[in-house]
Amino acid sequence: MEIYPPPLERLIEQFSRLPGIGQKSATRLALFILKSHKELSQSLAASLIEVKEKIELCSTCFSLTDEDPCAICRNENRINGIICVVEGPGDQLAIEESGVFKGKYHVLHGVLAPLDGVGPEDLKIAELVARLDKENIEEVILATNPTAQGETTASFLVKILSGKGVKITRIALGIPMGGDLKYMDSMTLQYCLKTRSPVVP
User: For 147, 151, 158, 180, which has the most beta carbons within 10 A of its beta carbon?
Assistant: First the structure.
C-alpha cells in the first residue's frame, strides 16, 4: 500500500533513481520540495530542462560546456602546448579549482575496463592523438585516478603516445599531506617507493 499520494510517490521514485540516493534520502528530498515555496520547484524543473537542452561536449577537449569551444579552450591566457588528461569532468573541476594548472585539458569520459566492455574506442583517445599535431602539443600530463583501471588507462596512453614527439608525465600519487604511513594501503606505498624523488637541499 502506498503511504503518500501518487504524485508524491512518483517524485520519491524519481529521486531514488539518482546515484547515491536511497529510499529514505529520496523521501526527505521529496518532502522538502513539497514544503518549500513553489518557486523552488519551478526553478529546479527549469534547471533540469536547461541542462539537458544546453549542455554539450566541447569539440576540442570534450569537457562540458554550453558554448563550443568551451571557455578554457577559448581562453587565450591559457598555456598552449600542455594538455592534462583526466577521466571525467569532475576530475577536471578538481584540478581547475586548485588554481595550479594553467594549460588545457582533455576529458576521456571514462577509463579502460575490458570486463565491463569499455575499450579504447569508447573513450576520447583517438581525439587526444589527433590533437597532438593539430595543436603542437609539447607535454601530455596523465591525471587518471590511482585505481587499477586508472593505472591501466595511463599505461595504455603511454604506449599510444610514445614516439609522438611529446613529453609524457604522470601526476604525483602517494601519501597526502598530514597522512600517516600506517594507515596507507599497500598499493599507495608501493607507488610512493617506486616513484620516490631526490631531496634537494
Answer: 151
pTM of the full predicted structure? 0.84
Cα atoms in the 13 Å half-sphere on the side-chain side of 159: 7
Distance of CA 33 to the CA centre of its chain: 29
- The x, y and z cell numbers of residue 42, run together, are 519551478
- List, in sequence order, the alpha helices (H) in the chain: 6-16, 23-35, 38-54, 71-74, 89-98, 125-134, 148-161, 186-194
| Lowest-pLDDT range of 22-31, 40-49, 144-153, 174-183 | 174-183
Burial of 192 by CB count in 10 Å (0-12 exposed, 13-18 middle, 19+ buried)? Answer: middle
- Model confidence over 135-153: pLDDT tens digits? 999 999 999 998 889 999 9
Domain covering 79-172: architecture:
3-Layer(aba) Sandwich (3.40)
Q: Check: CB of residue 111 under 8 Å from CB of residue 149.
A: yes
Dihedral of CA atoms 33, 34, 37, 42 in degrees, nearest 10, equals 60
Check whether 199 has a pLDDT greater than 80: no
Give me the residue spans of the domains in the chain.
Answer: 6-53, 79-172
In the prediction, which pLDDT does 200 show? Answer: 67
Question: Would you say residue 1 has pLDDT above 60?
Answer: no
> What topology is assigned to 6-53 in CATH?
Helicase, Ruva Protein; domain 3 (1.10.8)
